[in-house]
Amino acid sequence: MIDTSTYHVTPTELASEMAIVEDAKKNPSRFGVLYDNYYEQIFRYIYQRVDDKEQAFDATQQVFVKALESIHKYEFRGVPFASWLYRIAFSEVNNVYRAQKQRAVNIDSQSVYAILDELEETKIDEYHDKIVDIIGKELPEDELQLIEMRYFEKRSFKEIAALLEITENNAKVKTYRILEKLKKIMK
């Protein structure tokens, strides 16, 4: 049995969602239900990363166009359909970064304090601005993505693993290596 608790859905909700996906695979005109269910969260995910509302709208539109065009290729892997959409969204965000040659990072203080707490840092106020600068300017995209998912979006390692198509253990190891890297850079 699949543990759906880390995905914030029940087995019944997952089965219901899969019925909607299968229906959309057979009849693309029924894709609208999936669009309605996920548009807002995919838009927020993209907008958090591109920091321009029009670009976020455009990229979100592309995510759903690509999803509709590829729905027949979708395979259920025991995780919500949103995981597949997030992978498409991640690709679209990278397309925006390549076009702009820069990225946006929206960092809230509460998430920074969570990172500093995880690092067992006692000089929280002293290091707050420094870690914000490091995260925003020095982390490569793949490392930034893990930090964003874990600390800004509050995702479980299992959910991160599903979104990135890696093992849960690999998600943990990579995240803790990034934290160690942050600690070294801060000192």
Task: Describe the model.
This protein is mainly α and 187 residues long. It has two domains: 96 residues, Rna Polymerase Sigma Factor, Chain: A (Orthogonal Bundle); 78 residues, Arc Repressor Mutant, subunit A, CATH 1.10.10. The chain is 73% helix and 0% strand. Helix 4 crosses helix 8. The longest helix has 20 residues. The radius of gyration is 18 Å and the shape is globular. The N terminus is likely disordered.
Largest sheet: none
CATH class of the largest domain: Mainly Alpha
Overall SS class: mainly alpha
Counted up, domains total: 2
CATH names the topology of the largest domain as Rna Polymerase Sigma Factor, Chain: A
Instruction: Assess the beta-strand content as a share of residues.
Output: under 5%
CATH architecture of the largest domain: Orthogonal Bundle
In short:
The protein is mainly α.
Give keywords.
Arc Repressor Mutant, subunit A, 2 domains, single chain, 187 residues, Rna Polymerase Sigma Factor, Chain: A, mainly alpha
Explain the layout of strands and helices.
Elements: H1 11-26, H2 32-50, H3 53-70, H4 81-100, H5 109-118, H6 124-137, H7 141-152, H8 157-164, H9 168-186
Helix pairs in contact: 2-3, 2-4, 3-4, 4-8, 5-6, 7-9, 8-9
